[in-house]
Specification:
Length: 383
Amino acid sequence: MNVKQAVLAGMLAAGLGLAGCDVITSIQKGGAVERLFGTTSDGQAVKLFTLKNKSGAELQVINFGAIVLSLKVPDRNGQLADVTLGCDQLSDYESKTPYFGAVVGRYGNRIAKGQFMLEGQTYTLATNNGPNALHGGLKGFDKVVWQAQAVQASDGPAVEFSYLSKDGEEGYPGSLAVKMVYTLTDKNEFKIQYTATTDKPTVVNITHHSYFNLAGAGEGDILGHEMMINADRFTPVDATLIPTGELKPVQGTPMDFTKPMAIGARVNQDNEQLKFGGGYDHNWVINQQQAGELTAAVRVVEPKSGRVLEVLTTEPGVQFYCGNFLDGTLTGKGGKVYKHRYGFCLEPQHFPDTPNHTNFPSCVLQPGQTYTQTTIYRFSTVK
Ligand code: BGC
């Protein structure tokens, strides 16, 4: 529905005392409150959902790009802070932000030269990142309005999203029907469950792109955060951040996060991989017992606040990007300026450029199969 219809429906719903219709003013459903957030430049109404769990944490999401607007979690003294970077205006999300808080797809990360072959046919994508395709194209999953509704899951308030990516959209074959459930569990987890089905063979690599700062968004850089990645190998890249195809041991390199290490401890070392990324912007190969098994992949501790973020995922890889391209030109929520490395992303996914690497776990989805992914961002504290 467009805005006019939305407002009318809202007035009607309010007038008739209806709850649960596609709304507008403000509706309470389980632990979620829904209201109108804004209107896209092409006139589509965008809804904002505010979820509160039993432990006092709060998650705000919109159905444009299924974007996380804010995520408030306690520090070791119970003080809440918003730990995700973002903006106040919908128009900023439409044109300015580097995927703050968004879902990324159909194929997250890079595809070399915007080309891949599938079942004997070559597909060409827009090259929007130097010579390569990045994050699903010019209008990826982060730039579309998703169908969305609040629901009450058994473990906390939730929002269900769905989107039909049409055959040929952004150059990808097959109509892909995507569903996601975002739950703010009562254990202070932000859980994302994805499924997708297709009517033609296609490639799928969906991920989540929140930028975290556990000291609070805009409260300095993230270099003092201590990180551990459950990965003995990573996928080294060329100068355009396309994997060479090798799965290289992290041991003896600045990529070794098998023991907790400050993000900033080695980020500026004289190392070819770090130079290519302008810092960390690489994919780690998660140590999984079994493909598709939910695995503890990353643990991050912010020593001052005591906040801890753990990432669990069923995906084989995780892209760790430490905000190298943030440069102080973007003003975020509440007027705070996001400078170099003020946030980091942990993007569970298949490896970059998988469609061009037969030795990587496949990202091909066939008709009749269902793509599934579960990723959990779990928050807690240490003394
Ligand atoms: C990529 C970075 C990119 C960032 C924002 C990350 O997933 O790996 O290279 O700059 O997204 O676009």
